[in-house]
Design a protein that fits this description.
By secondary structure, the protein is mainly α. The protein is 83% helix and 0% strand. The chain has 4 helices and no strands. Helix 2 runs antiparallel to helix 4. The longest helix has 38 residues.
Length: 103
């Protein structure tokens, strides 16, 4: 593409709306992940006995292990949510902007 095409894309209101929507969504997912990590760290700091409690009397596994695994899995889930929306809605909006600019 030429510099003129880039300028037309950046000036396009649909492109600006796409960028704003994508940034808002990414920041929302980032805030959720940060909140989960902070909650886990605060739990470690203020209620360590909860994480050290065994799931059942005869189990060697404590509550900290599934909570930690859940935290890691939540990162994968949030990434999957972003990828699904990026490959669907955001790609469609991106293609609409490109089609509009190339006319």
């Amino acid at each position: 593409m030429h510099d003129d095409s880039y300028a037309r894309i950046q000036a396009n209101p649909r492109f600006q709306a796409l960028v704003a929507k994508r940034e808002r969504f990414a920041w929302t997912l980032s805030a959720i992940m940060l909140g989960l990590y902070v909650a886990f760290i605060l739990l470690i700091a203020f209620e360590p006995q909860l994480l050290g409690t065994r799931i059942s009397a005869d189990s060697p596994i404590t509550w900290g292990i599934p909570m930690g695994v859940g935290l890691i899995l939540s990162a994968f889930v949030l990434t999957g949510i972003y990828v699904k929306r990026a490959n669907g809605e955001f790609d469609t909006l991106n293609q609409a902007v490109l089609d509009e600019v190339q006319k």
